[in-house]
Write a structure and sequence with these properties.
Length: 292
């Protein structure tokens, strides 16, 4: 019982930290692509150091390496779209749009895994679409941010579906490490192509270095390992419900840090309530359906 309480606290703290990434994305002054490059570099280095300290065997097969490396590209795209959405809109708009990954998972998972789409999934999906429509209608000035937030949700859905298969045969921390390396490789390749890496001077402000260190360590590698470890004692249902608090925590933190800049119209909040209500209903619906 004590272990369960401890892991519940750890999971809440982990989800809270994930919610904090939106705030960091706003306060770090550099663009989305170099920000994600720094993030994956710091996170991969931190995880590697953790593996060395714990003397963990990280050897994998060639097939696994290719799978993880390619999936890392999708993870990197997700983060780039996510932070770009924050840069061109607000943290609140981006996090609510990102929550729609439940909708895209309900659509994409049956297609990828060749399973029938459930009626209940369609209903939850329609509710989320209604919420997105409300946000588009009342926050038209953030159209670009909404689009990139939704694209980030699609990418998040894709790598989550892929990882749900990969995790059956490999340890999550190993998957995460090689996906981070993959993300670093693909972003580096892109930055070499556009010339931004060659002209990079690493002359960031002290605050940017501090926030990037927080983003790469606490919000990525540490949070990832902590989030995975609690799954040994907590049910998937509990994990899903608490993970859905990420946009709630993120929006509250955005209000605290940015105040008036995060104030939206009434239509936005109606849409947000519809979307967030739907993603909380989803695991409840799934649990009841599985009992039938």
């Amino acid at each position: 019982m004590e272990a369960t309480k401890k892991n519940l606290l750890i999971l809440h703290l982990t989800v809270f930290v994930w919610g904090f990434t939106g705030v960091l994305g706003k306060v770090i002054s550099i663009d989305a692509v170099p920000m994600v490059w720094y993030r994956v570099l710091i996170a991969a280095a931190t995880l590697f150091a953790w593996f060395l300290i714990t003397r963990k065997n990280i050897k994998i097969t060639r097939t696994q390496f290719i799978q993880f490396f390619l999936t890392g590209a999708i993870v990197a795209i997700h983060w780039i779209f996510f932070f770009h959405a924050i840069k061109v809109s607000t943290v609140s708009v981006t996090l609510v749009c990102l929550s729609s990954f439940t909708l895209f998972t309900a659509i994409l998972e049956p297609i990828i895994k060749k399973q029938p789409i459930q009626t209940g999934d369609i209903f939850i999906g329609l509710l989320i679409i209604l919420g997105i429509y409300m946000i588009f209608k009342f926050e038209g000035q953030y159209t670009l941010g909404i689009i990139f937030g939704l694209l980030a949700a699609v990418a998040s859905s894709l790598f989550s579906i892929i990882n749900s298969t990969l995790v059956q045969k490999s340890e999550p921390s190993i998957i995460g490490f090689y996906e981070l390396l993959g993300g670093l490789f693909w972003i580096t390749l892109y930055r070499l192509y556009d010339g931004s890496l060659l002209s990079m001077h690493f002359n960031l402000s002290t605050s940017d270095w501090f926030y990037l260190a927080l983003l790469g360590t606490l919000c990525t590698s540490v949070a990832y390992v902590a989030g995975v470890s609690v799954m040994r004692t907590l049910s998937a249902f509990r994990v899903a419900l608490i993970t859905n608090l990420e946009p709630v925590y993120g929006i509250l933190l955005a209000f605290i840090f940015f105040q008036n800049k995060e104030q939206m119209t009434g239509g936005f909040y109606i849409g947000a309530i519809i979307i967030l209500g739907s993603i909380f209903l989803y695991p409840i619906y799934k649990k009841r359906k599985n009992k039938l």
